[in-house]
Write a structure and sequence with these properties.
Layout: H1 8-11, H2 16-24, H3 28-36, H4 41-51, H5 57-67, H6 70-101, H7 109-116, H8 122-137, H9 139-142, H10 149-164, H11 168-177, H12 180-191, E1 196-200, H13 207-216, E2 220-223, E3 231-236, H14 245-248, E4 252-254, H15 257-266, E5 273-276, H16 283-291, E6 297-301, H17 308-318, E7 323-326, H18 333-336, E8 343-347, H19 362-365, H20 368-387, E9 397-402, H21 411-420, E10 423-426, E11 434-435, E12 439-440, E13 443-444, E14 453-455, H22 457-460, E15 465-472, H23 480-491, H24 508-515, H25 519-539, H26 569-587
Parallel strand pairs: 5-6, 5-8, 6-7, 8-9
Antiparallel strand pairs: 1-3, 1-4, 2-3, 9-15, 10-15, 11-14, 12-13, 14-15
Helix pairs in contact: 4-5, 8-10, 10-11, 10-12, 15-16, 20-21
Length: about 600
């Protein structure tokens, strides 16, 4: 037969594993090493497949990886990554459940006393602040039994004051304005510096040319924002920005972004008369002149003459020619220059609670008592500014601004002025910023205060600022009409004879009826006339025509003219003699002495 038992061994089909093993052998040296170890190919395959010792299991895994295709290897790596992610997600889920269900332990008075004897690390304070904020966010389920919300707020206030270095009363004021979480954002943003901003002086340069010149000096800059055509934000500069040749030539001015907003809201036009009541060191004044194109006139006032030196220097450097500097008390300008200016800019002195990043001393030097004292000064200056404002010829606009975020210095002052002068709030023209408060705690303000604008460091990356624009309607003051009605019966006069005839031959009753504005007043006038006629009938005697002009009628309560007391015959004669003597002195010719 063709097939016999002698070739049965090589006719038997080999296993797939043995075929793979033979294909994977790289050289004859590997086969010789395997034969030297005294093992056959089958034994070697058994060891590699994991049936041998534990030391060969890793090598079998490597060999299995080598046997895989690249796609299979990548798929296995992805599966391993997914398993790791699922394990981490499960651990995070369990940790979140444990953290959300546990109750935060508020420190007891005894524990707080122990903390006074030691320095509490900032990390511990920050963790406690975050924990209290989480409790306040879900107070019903997360609070500790027997603890009220006010206790958590007090502890939060104390921790914030200690962490950021504020007086506790200032933190309490911020908490009353913002929520707990927003207060933390405000305090954190107030500690971080604001970006450096410059304003292009368009009287001497264009922003495009200025940016190109500064870029050549290695300055990294960007346009400030879409709302400003002259602002540039500097991110990094290898040279001092306040000492470049462009700065010395007056091509730009260092000015914060927030301080540009009041000038933009006022929007002065060429050939107008503008008053800047707190001008030093001249940043806003130069921007006013820039918008007015060096026309018209600007009166730059400041209380301290020493500060005006910087204003004068900046005006010369920037090429401004329409500014007059002076140093008066702003509270007296309304009487000094009544109705003289078309527009007024008042950047009022304030507590500086919005510029803490530039002056950290405010944290410990300003108290709420200082804030309330400043409010009184702000009210007086703002009333004086309105009195200096002319409401004719389409003018009569005033912008009130402060670098503070406190409500007493902003909304309360404007609300007070709305009651004391005939003014109204108008749109500032600024399409960014948050609207002003119309209610604060138990206080309610005029609804038009929503037209004012607030800027915050944690929202707009600005200094804290407040801007309000008002329009003067007239010189009237609330309450003047009532006072005039009360004073009028004492000051008015109505001269007539007993029959109701005036000295000019016209009926006084008819004049009063023309001047009166209500039917009730007319009725009272008729009653007074009837009483006067009744008295003449009782006398049965007509008065002397010569004395008609001298006799007076009884006081009419509704008349707008007061009645003087009657004069006797002796007083009338003395008056006549005095009048004749006066006429004689006037008509007497002057005599000149002739020198010899």
């Amino acid at each position: 037969a063709f097939f016999s038992d002698e070739n049965a061994d090589w006719l038997k089909p080999k296993s797939k594993a043995k075929a793979k093993q033979q294909l994977m052998s790289s050289s004859d040296e590997d086969d010789s090493d395997a034969s030297d170890d005294g093992g056959s190919e089958d034994d070697e395959f058994v060891k590699r497949s994991g049936h041998g010792g534990g030391s060969d299991s890793s090598s079998s895994a490597e060999d299995s990886d080598d046997e895989m295709l690249e796609v299979e290897r990548q798929s296995r790596l992805i599966d391993r990554e997914m398993e790791i992610e699922e394990a981490e997600a499960e651990a995070e889920y369990r940790r979140t459940i444990q953290h959300s269900t546990e109750v935060f332990h508020l420190p007891t008075p005894e524990e707080l006393e122990d903390d006074e004897d030691r320095v509490v690390p900032p990390t511990e304070l920050r963790e406690r602040i975050d924990a209290i904020l989480e409790v306040l966010a879900d107070f019903k389920t997360r609070r500790e039994p027997g603890r009220s919300r006010s206790e958590y707020i007090d502890q939060l206030q104390s921790d914030m004051a200690e962490l950021f270095g504020y007086l506790p009363e200032l933190v309490e004021h911020f908490l009353s304005m913002f929520g707990p979480a927003e207060t933390l954002e405000f305090l954190t943003a107030s500690d971080s510096p604001r970006p450096l901003v410059i304003r292009t002086n368009t009287l001497k340069a264009r922003r495009k040319d200025l940016a190109a010149a500064l870029l050549k000096r290695g300055v990294t800059l960007d346009p400030l924002a879409s709302w400003s055509k002259v602002g540039l934000k500097i991110s990094e500069s290898p040279v001092p920005v306040g000492a470049t040749p462009e700065y010395l030539a007056g091509h730009y001015m260092l000015q914060s972004a927030a301080s540009m907003c009041p000038v933009m809201a006022l929007s002065p036009q060429p050939n107008e008369r503008v008053l800047d009541m707190s001008a030093a060191p001249g940043g806003k004044t130069s921007y006013l002149a820039q918008l007015m194109r060096n026309t018209g006139s600007i009166v730059a006032n400041d209380l301290k003459p020493d500060r005006q030196k910087a204003t004068v220097a900046n005006m010369h450097r920037l090429g401004v020619r329409n500014v007059i500097t002076c140093a008066y008390d702003g509270r007296k300008l309304g009487k000094l220059w009544p109705n003289k200016f078309d527009k007024v800019l008042l950047d009022a002195p304030c507590s500086g609670l919005g510029v803490i990043s530039r002056d950290p001393s405010v944290k410990v030097q300003r108290t709420m008592a200082d804030v309330h004292r400043t409010v009184v000064l702000q009210k007086e200056i703002l009333l004086s500014a309105i009195d200096a404002l002319s409401y004719k010829k389409g003018g009569g606009y005033i912008v009130y601004s402060t670098c503070s975020v406190s409500v007493p210095e902003n909304e309360e002052v404007v609300n007070y002025v709305l009651k004391k002068r005939d003014v109204k709030l108008v749109d500032s023209g600024l399409d960014f910023g948050k609207p002003g408060f119309t209610r604060y705690q138990q206080k309610r303000f005029h609804p038009s205060l929503a037209l004012t604008r607030r800027f915050y460091p944690h929202v707009h990356n600005f200094d804290g600022f407040y801007v309000a624009k008002l329009k003067k309607l007239s010189d009237k003051r609330p309450g003047d009409d009532d006072d005039a009605d009360k004073v009028a019966p004492e000051e008015g006069t109505a001269v007539h004879d007993d029959e109701g005839r005036g000295s000019n031959g016209e009926s006084s009753v008819e004049d009063e009826e023309k001047e009166s504005s209500s039917p009730k007043q007319r009725k009272n006038d008729r009653t007074a006339t009837k009483k006067a006629k009744g008295k003449t009938e009782k006398k049965k005697k007509r008065p002397d025509p010569e004395n008609d002009a001298d006799e007076v009628s009884p006081v009419n309560k509704k008349s707008k003219r007061a009645v003087p007391p009657p004069m006797s015959k002796e007083q009338r004669k003395q008056k006549q003699r005095k009048k004749q003597a006066t006429n004689a002195k006037v008509t007497k010719p002057r005599r000149h002495k002739l020198g010899v």
